[in-house]
């Protein structure tokens, strides 16, 4: 029992460490964004640091994830073959995410909900440094977040091959995903969590991290056009 508790605490610590590393990369880009107008050379240096740190973090995540898949992997996560059925279901999952986004947009337009602070900050950053922030928000952030909230999270805490474990894992993964995007408990948190639940469901169904990454990328791409 003591061994299980110690291992769980260690994995929670690792997951927090991964998230902090991801936030540090984001912080480098924020500094580049904030200095872009007044100090272009300083901004360029921060962009270089962002690229190096982001690349190293991505390689580290990929290596660790592959190591996990070769070890304890009862759900048989890995890289699956693309089929017509999988493409059709991928489209269905994306349609569900699009439905959540459209509902969210209507609630904001009709002043039922305020625009999420997270989204406002993203828009402000894009206005200051469009190319880099759009690339980061559409491609880099979804990849990092799917490794953390789906790949590592399920392998660490919900890898037992039972229906109950799957449902609980989806619920907890989505709630954490939502909370860390709003840092409070509100209706906006619920909407972010809904996207997280869809992404977690896709990961468990397809058993391939590339599918939730693809869904996340498409979702973020639509949000900037």
UniProtKB/TrEMBL annotation:
**Alphabetic keyword roster:** Hydrolase, Membrane, Protease, Transmembrane, Transmembrane helix
- Please give the InterPro entries that the UniProt record associates with this protein: CAAX_protease, Rce1/LyrA-like_dom
Tell me which Gene Ontology terms the entry assigns under biological process: CAAX-box protein maturation; proteolysis
| Single GO term (MF) | endopeptidase activity
Q: Where is the CAAX prenyl protease 2/Lysostaphin resistance protein A-like domain?
A: 130-222
Q: Where are the transmembrane segments?
A: 12-34, 46-65, 86-104, 138-158, 165-183, 189-206
Matches recorded under Pfam families = Rce1-like
* Source superkingdom: Bacteria
Q: Which PANTHER family match?
A: CAAX AMINO TERMINAL PROTEASE FAMILY PROTEIN, SLR1288 PROTEIN
Homology family: Belongs to the UPF0177 family.
Protein name as catalogued? Putative protease
Species the sequence originates in: Secundilactobacillus oryzae JCM 18671
């Amino acid at each position: 029992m003591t061994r299980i508790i110690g291992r769980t605490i260690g994995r929670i610590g690792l997951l927090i460490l991964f998230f902090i590393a991801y936030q540090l990369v984001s912080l480098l880009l924020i500094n580049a964004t904030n200095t872009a107008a007044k100090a272009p050379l300083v901004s360029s240096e921060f962009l270089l640091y962002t690229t190096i740190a982001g690349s190293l973090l991505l390689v580290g995540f990929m290596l660790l994830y592959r190591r996990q898949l070769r070890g304890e992997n009862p759900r048989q996560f890995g890289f699956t073959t693309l089929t017509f059925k999988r493409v059709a279901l991928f489209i269905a999952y994306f349609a569900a995410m699009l439905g959540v986004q459209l509902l969210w947009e209507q609630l904001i337009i009709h002043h039922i909900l305020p625009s999420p602070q997270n989204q406002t900050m993203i828009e402000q950053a894009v206005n200051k440094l469009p190319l880099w922030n759009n690339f980061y928000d559409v491609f880099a952030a979804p990849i990092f977040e799917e490794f953390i909230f789906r790949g590592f999270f399920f392998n660490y805490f919900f890898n037992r091959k039972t229906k109950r474990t799957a449902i609980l894992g989806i619920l907890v993964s989505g709630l954490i995903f939502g909370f860390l995007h709003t840092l409070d408990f509100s209706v906006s948190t619920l909407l972010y969590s809904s996207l997280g639940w869809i992404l977690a469901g896709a990961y468990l169904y397809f058993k391939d991290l590339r599918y939730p990454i693809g869904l996340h990328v498409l979702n973020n791409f639509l949000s900037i056009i």
